[in-house]
Amino acid sequence: MLRFSEGRPIDRAAQTAVALTLPLGDPRATLESAGGKGASLARLSAAGLPVPDGFHITTEAYRQFVAANKIGAAIREELDTADRAIPSTLEAVSKAISKRFLDGQMPAEIARAVTQAYARLGGTDLPVAVRSSATAEDLPGLSFAGQQDTYLNVRGVEALLASVKRCWASLWSARAIGYRSRNGVDQDPLTLAVVVQRLVPAEASGVLFTANPVSGRGDQAMISAAWGLGEALVGGKVTPDTLVIDKPTGRVLARDTADKQLMTVLHEEGTGEQGVSDAKRRAAVLGDQAAAGLVRMGVQIEELYGRPMDIEWALSGGKFAILQARPITALPEAQREPSVEWKLPDPKATYMRASIIEQLPEPLTPLFSTLAGPIINEATRALFAWMVGGKELKPEIVLFETINGYAYLNWHFGLWDTVRVSVASAVRANSIFRLSEARWRQARSHYLEVVRSCQGKAPRDYTAQELLQGVRTLTGEAVNMYTVLQTGPVMTAGTSEMMFTQLYNRLIKKKGDPDASAFLLGFESAPIRAERSLYELAEWARQCAGLAVHLSNTPAAHLAAELKSADPPAGVKVEEWGEWRRRMQDHLARYGYFTFDLDFSKAVAADDPAPLLETCRMYLLGKAGSPCDRVRDIVARREQATQAMLRRLRGPKRWIFRRQLRSAQRYAPLREDGLSDLGLGYPLLRQLARELGRRMVGAGALERPEDVFWLNEPEVRQAAAALDQGLPLFSRLDAVRHRRALWRAEQRLAPPLVLPLGSRWMGMDVEKLTTAGESADPRVIKGFGASQGRVTAAARVLLGPEDFDQLRPGDVLVAPITTPGWTPLFALASAIVTDIGGPLSHSSIVAREYGIPAVLGTVNATRRIRSGQTITVDGGAGTVQISDPQGS
Question: What does the alpha-carbon distance between residue 686 and residue 691 come to, in Å, rounded to a whole number?
Answer without folding.
Answer: 8
